[in-house]
Amino acid sequence: MTAIASGTAVAAAPWRLWREALRAALVLGAREVRTSLRTPAYLLPNMIVPIFFYFIMVGSLEQFAGDAGVDNWQAFQLPVAIVFAVQGGSAGLNMVADIESGYFYKLLLTPAHRMSILLGAMSADFVRIVVQATVVVLIAVATGLHFETGIAGAAALVLLSSLWGLAYSGLGFAVALKTGNSQATQSLWFMFMPFLFLTTLFAPREALSGWLSTAATFNPMTYLLAGLRALSMNGWDASDIGGALLAVAGVGVLSFTLALLALRGRLR
Amino acid sequence: MTIAEARPPAVEPDAPHEADEVHAIAARGLRMEFGGGIVAVDGIDVHVREGEIFGFLGPNGAGKTTTVRMLTTLLRPTAGSATVAGFDLYRQQLAIRRSIGVALQEAGLDALATGRELLKLQAQLFGIRGRDAARRAAELLELVGLVEAADRQIRTYSGGMKRRLDLASALVHEPRVLFLDEPTEGLDPASRQTVWQEITRLNDVLGVTVFLTTHYLEEADRLADRLAIIDRGRIVAEGTPHALKASIAGDVVTVAVARERLEEAQDLLCSLAGVREVRPDEAGLTMFVSDGPSVVANVIRVLDGAGVPVGAVAVAQPSLDEVFLRATGARLEGAAAEGTVTP
Q1: Which of B32, B49, B110, B126 would best serve as a mutation to test chain A binding (most A beta carbons within 10 A)?
Q2: Which end of chain B is less enclosed by CB atoms within 10 A, N or C?
Q3: pLDDT score of A89 more than 70
Q4: pTM as predicted
Q5: Which residues of B touch A110 (CB under 8 A)?
Q6: CB A101 to CB B108 under 8 A?
Q7: Is B209 within 8 Å of A4 when comparing Cβ atoms?
Q8: Section B215-244 average pLDDT
Q9: Percent of chain B at pLDDT above 90?
């Protein structure tokens, strides 16, 4: 064993530190995936609710859709179900469990960069989101949905919606790190509801009027739904898809900044 | 935190702190003040020599855990300076984390992982790759006697098993300095013995420096080469257990007296020859005397003469509890005394 007196720090180039940080994030992400798989009670509702919502909306409001000028109601509703799937899970709950058990501090005591802990958790959440979005799309296709943009469009829809879910998950991690409280973290799901209803949930934007139209204009989810609907029912519309990507980027920058601030606060 | 701040730190200065090369831990004026003016640690000096087991003894809330959290880079001190394993606490945190192993008061474990998975992950986070990480996990499971439970989820482990696993996870990278915060808190006597043996073995065989916090007198007495007693954020005594006990020259006589006659009895006993100090506590009175056996007869005679009922009288060599009592006015494992009478 090296004597204390001769202790020296391991000198490493910045690129090597980055590589180690990414490797740690990967290892921690794999651990988060394993944790999620061992808690199916957490995963299953997130899977069932959007599928249930999709069939209820498609089955009960098809007549209304025709009156509102929507031809392909299934393709119109799929993005809503997808958004439920990618946002429904309460991101950050595993992190809260780690904080409560003290394991979070155990991780802080390793040489792994503190950002790796957040990145690992987020990457695992991204995997969960992608799987959930894919399952919803597959079920919709199996029950008769036709994608105007084909398989590539379906894949793009999964990717775009998953990026949105990842961007939104930053808020969950921010609340988890700030409060260390599972109830506060779970309550974020309820915050998501107004955003969903103050947008083009039931009807296209042209059919909205008054304050709802104004609210929808300022709601980033409106632009996300427009992009997703372009992929599911209209075709490769660069304007709508670009708008959705900007909405994802905007929410992502905001939520990741909040998550990083919360991480810094917890490390004080 | 900006992205720039969040990136991995630049290469850390690799020269150990010059002044503290002979110490595994050296802290000066270390202070931690929380919001609302709560001072948890009030400017303490700690020097732990390489290869020793250093005990940090004190009651709950004395500042032990806060000190550990500062020295292990989890908390940034409000003031003071420190080096750990030769590295500066403020400028070389990454190097410190590579050099230390830590088992916190609450065994922080991932309940849904198996013991093997947890140790392997810990090894990977310390840069041990692939099969080497798996091999290291297996070695540690063997070391702490958890081979049979290795592939069970940790939530099924007993408290003692969790403590041993936590200890193993602190050793995964062969640290030079080991911080153990209340390592046997809540354990049954058998598990406590196992952990004690393990700590002693790590120190004897591997030469690991151990910084151990505890509020168990027996634990400090048995394990620590040297110890510091902390109370209300300040170190009130420091030395080897033997030297600390020897500082109370003579014997300790404890006298069980009813609470309502305590003050009267204290006054009476203070005036006896050979009595240096009398302190009240929950059980009665503790007398610091030059020669216990010769004083006992007088104690009974004086109290009996004054009509003060005496429950029991015992003579003993001073323990760390008496050291603590003398330094702080309270017993470590009892209520605070309210007054001292010195003849």
Answers
A1: B110
A2: C
A3: no
A4: 0.79
A5: 97, 122, 125-126
A6: yes
A7: yes
A8: 90
A9: 45
User: Tokens standing for A203?
Assistant: 């009807």
The answer to whether B20 and B86 have CB atoms below 8 angstroms apart is: yes
Cα separation, A178 vs B244, whole angstroms: 45
How large is the ipTM? Answer: 0.81
- Contact, B46 vs B235, CB < 8 A? yes
User: What is the pLDDT averaged over residues B75-91?
Assistant: 94
- Tokens at B190, concatenated: 């058998």
Among A92, A109, A112, A86, smallest CA distance to A221 is for A86
**B209 bridge partner residues:** B177
**How would residue A8 be classed by pLDDT, with cut points 50, 70 and 90?**
low
Instruction: Write b or e for each residue in B93-116: b if 16 or more Cβ atoms lie within 10 A of its Cβ, otherwise e.
Output: bbbbbbbbbbbbbbbbbbbbbbbb
Bigger pLDDT: A47 vs A253? A253
Q: What's the start-to-end Cα distance of chain A, in Å? A: 32
Average pLDDT over residues A142-156: 89
What is the three-class DSSP state of B130? helix
Nearest beta carbon to residue A20 from set B3, B97, B127 = B127
Three-point CA angle B69, B74, B77, nearest 5°: 70
